[in-house]
Automatic annotation (TrEMBL):
Keywords: Actin-binding, ATP-binding, Cytoplasm, Cytoskeleton, Hydrolase, Motor protein, Myosin, Nucleotide-binding, Phosphoprotein, Repeat, SH3 domain. This is Myosin-1. It comes from Rhizopogon vinicolor AM-OR11-026. Type-I myosin implicated in the organization of the actin cytoskeleton. Required for proper actin cytoskeleton polarization. At the cell cortex, assembles in patch-like structures together with proteins from the actin-polymerizing machinery and promotes actin assembly. Functions as actin nucleation-promoting factor (NPF) for the Arp2/3 complex. Residues 1175-1189 have a biased composition (Polar residues). Residues 35-714 form the Myosin motor domain. Belongs to the TRAFAC class myosin-kinesin ATPase superfamily. Myosin family. PROSITE patterns: MYOSIN_MOTOR, SH3, TH1. Residues 1043-1101 form the SH3 domain. Pfam families: Myosin_head (PF00063), Myosin_TH1 (PF06017), SH3_2 (PF07653).
Amino acid sequence: MAISKKAGKKTAVKSAGTAKVAKADWKEGFKKKQVGVSDMTLLTTISNDSINDNLQKRWTNGEIYTYIGGVLISVNPFRDLGIYTDETLHKYKGKNRLEVPPHVFSIAESAYYNMNAYHENQCVIISGESGAGKTEAAKRIMQYIAAVSGGVDNSIQEIKEMVLATNPLLESFGCAKTLRNNNSSRHGKYLEIMFNDKGEPIGAQITNYLLEKGRVVGQIENERNFHIFYQFTKAASEDQREQFGLQGPESYAYTSMSNCFEVQDIDDSKDYADTLNAMKIIGLSNQEQNEIFRMLAVILWLGNVQFAEMDDGNATIADTGVTDFIGYLMEVDSAMVQKVLTSKVVETQRGGRRGSVYDVPLNPAQATAGRDALAKAIYNNLFEWIVARINVSMKARSATAQVIGILDIFGFEIFEDNSFEQLCINYVNEKLQQIFIELTLKTEQEEYVREQIKWTPINYFNNKIVCDLIEERKPPGIFAALNDACATAHADPAAADNSFVQRTAMLSSNAHFESRGAQFLVRHYAGDVMYNIAGMTDKNKDALVKDLFDLVGSSSNQFLQTLFSDRPDPSSKKRPPTAGDRIKVSAGALVDNLMRAQPSYIRTIKPNQNRSATEYDTKAILHQIKYLGLQENIRVRRAGFAYRNSFDKMVERFYLLSPSTSYAGEYTWQGDAKSGCERILKDTGIAKDEWQMGVTKAFIKNPETLFALETMRDRYWHSMAARIQRAWRNYWRYKNECARRIQKFWKNNKDALEYAKVRDYGHQVLAGRKERRRYSLLSYRRFLGDYLDVNGKSIIGSDLRSICSLGAEQVTFSSKVQILVHKAFRSSKCSPRFLVVTAKAVYIVKTLEKGSQIVERKIPLITIKSISMSNLRDDWLALNCNASEEGDPVLHCYFKTELTANLLTLTQAGMNVLIGPTIEYAKKKDKTQIKFVKDETIAKDDVYKSHTVHVPSGEPPSSTSRPAAKRKPGIVRPITQGRLLRAGGPSNKPNASRPKPAAQPMPGRSVPSATVKSALGSAPRSVPPPPTRNPVPPPPPPPLKEPDVELYKAKFAFEGQEGEISLKKDDVVELIEKDDNGWWLVKKDEQEGWAPNNYLELVPPKTKAVPAARLPPPRPPPPPAIVATSTSVSTSRPTAPVISVKSVSADASAKPVAVFPGLAPSNGSAAPWKKPISASANESLNTTPANSRPSSSLASKPPPPVAAKPKPVPPPVASKPNGGKLPAKPPIPTAPRPGAGAAPPKISTVSKPSAPTGQLDLAAAFAKRAQRVADD
């Protein structure tokens, strides 16, 4: 065999009957093969090692996303895989997770779809270690939702831009480089995007959780402060450097103590520009931006305040220039700054009464702590103000229907030195893990028991015991013990720490807690963490001394006052809330928000601690797999049900899929919701082992089944839409065909009507005063006017237009004429000329002997006074003009009447028409007459000689145009463009009609559902049942004197088809029923059938016996009716039974007939009197539809037209249609960076995814199964 042009060889042609094999696609060889399994519920062996092996294979191959059912597992690649492009994004739009590879976009699509489909709030919970990729995942979810949520309104686009702008802004102020992550979130954030009922974003809100403000005043080696400090000090403008005294980050203690200024893959200058742009998008004014940067400058300069120890051990300011500049920035007295930083006010109380007030000096350590507390408070309040300001800008523009929440919060942390900050972070992660357990493990199993669902229970670790260890009050937990220690020893931090150590001994009864002196251990779900108690109570108090509040209160800077607007009331005896109290309240509110929404989960995993794109730390990942509970998640997923919902919700969502529960989009089930739900699942063909009915809910085992149900529902609406579109297109095709016929008739007759008007005007001009020529009165005679085609493109017409210099002027009349030429001493004679008439003048063109042409005479219309003609049938006329040397032209023109009517029309009857026995005209300046004599010897036209014209007799002067000839009648061509919505025919009526069920209220509602409108509109009325046929006809009655039936005789032979009756000429039939569609039910020789009424004529009545009544055959459709083309159409009529309807086409060999008999010619061509038109127009007008049916032509006389009807088994018949002044700016301090040589203090603290493999069309499979069950 020869090699084909395409790759591969030709295969031998297989014998008939062999199944055809689909041609292989050469592109399949270039598709990326799937590595591992994309959904770990399909793993053969369920263990931590098998999970790790699968994740390693996929991560090594650049596939970082894997599913466990609906939970997405993400392994940080530490490199750009190019999988977040717009092209990739659009691949996930509108797709369920089984149609596309695992991706964060799929989780976003699922949340957005479920929100719109089920009208329920959604949330995406992203958890994992620090550096595992939580922030990146949150950004990608926001990217996807902004791209697919639609909306063209400016406010909607503005909200989208603001939501995306929050990422660079909050990353600058809330993220920092840590040892584990270059862009680690040092705060928690819950972003709620609000949508209207159309799924368009109309607003957003951010909730902030536990900013790590201790990072502002100290970092360990190779970590950095928050990004904004490095961006500000590196990329600030010259005006800002001058105003705030800015220097590089190495000049400030708060940004240089860790000796880390540059970070790989981070460009601080570029990020600063992005931050400024984000501020602009959010709507921060220039004044607000300036105040934000002023506060950052205050913090940076506070870090450079150094304290020296005096001889008495008290602290003093080493360089007062720094405090002077701080006072300038804060807009306070610099002396007061020095005072509050080096001393504090102590007030004594005696018996509850106010005592003495003392200024107590501070030692350098105390002064440093107070300085750092002020810096942390300013930054924390600034961050919260920014978040609140963002929320103001993103406030919802209209009513909120649903919300999608995105939780991006700090991951679980285990350091060498873990303190209060780590305790709070890990506590929040415990709460999130508790939610995960509650929603995916514990609640699920409890629900199965409650709903009496058969399944296999799974053992799992419930971390509620750890959450209670930290947050409970009775018995007191860690936070309660901290609060008690702070209250009993509030003046001395060391004493408070010791009190806390003693109180932790009471927690030793908890198996997840161990007290180890100055440390304690908590066994978290993610691992054991050892916490240092030193400084914990002080951090828990988290309060500024009164002196620092007084310093802020004395500032004339309104922005600074706003940041500390909630200063505590010194007269209040109520203990202010501690940091532990606040984090408990925040975590509780977060849990409440998440529990009110339907969650989606993204579990992030960090493959190594070195941010390497190639290193896979198996030990570390196994640890994360264990504490994330992935193995238990897989077991529950495999043993449980993927989807469940209440019976009411299930019925409301899927009632369309069963004919027992819906009719034309309306809910019609009359039973309870549970039985309705069960009926839907059975009718859709879903296997019984794929679903179970609980007590209050229906459970579906596999997501594939749910996706199949959704696909069926989508197809239902597509089918309804297609049917409406098909009906609309049929209507328009039928309407257009009717319009074309009307247009064709009008085109064939409009010219004749216009010509008839002009011709009638000509008769009026003559007014019965002149004999007429016989050919002038023919019915086909029309006044064309431009007989020489001067307005067209003919050669003669173009030459005449050029000779007469007409330009764009239109010619109203042109013709060949004879002109009477006068010569001296000789008799006048006729000479040929061309006559051209325009709206301005009459042109007489002469042809010279050499063949050239000239304008012999131009006569303006205003100079013509009258037109003279004789009263005989001759063709002579004279144009009587004003006196001139040339005289009046005397013309012989066959179209004299048309010429006269044309001139009168142009001059608005401004000239007279003189008719008499002679024509008087001016021969140069003399008056001369031409006589007219009747001479019957003249055979044709007339003869001029010596001023006398001999002419034979003509038609009487009162003659008018002959009437139009009656044309041969033809066969009416049926309309074949557009089809009936229901199949119809005369021989197949439905025996029984399915009654339309009444709409029922949806489960849980009191009125019928109006959410789903009928896709078909109101149903047409049903056909009345035919009369019943008696099994044995009764004996005929005696003859009647007066018949009660009418008899008709066949005028022509008619060959009937099924349901019709065949007739011969002169057959007498009895009329049973008349129908206004052109068909009558008749009876002949005890046989009934339908016949066309125009084939029958009434017979004079005579006495005849009445025959027994019989059931008539089905009625045929009206002649222009068309038959439906597919079985799907038959369901548009509720009363019709479901039957198979075949496509029907009319006979292509039909003879063309006139649309309007007597007006159009029988051969379909233009009428003889119609003005010739272009060939293409003629072709379009004369086209005969191929689907016409020839009528019977057995009789010698042509019979009337008969409508086309289908020959195959006919379908059922269709029914009938129905401030103060401040000191001057001090000089910028130039003191060297403090503590340069001192050791830093310890601080507490992607390749593209593979292409989707083919998926089984479960919706089609279920539909087939349902059909088989119904057939059985």
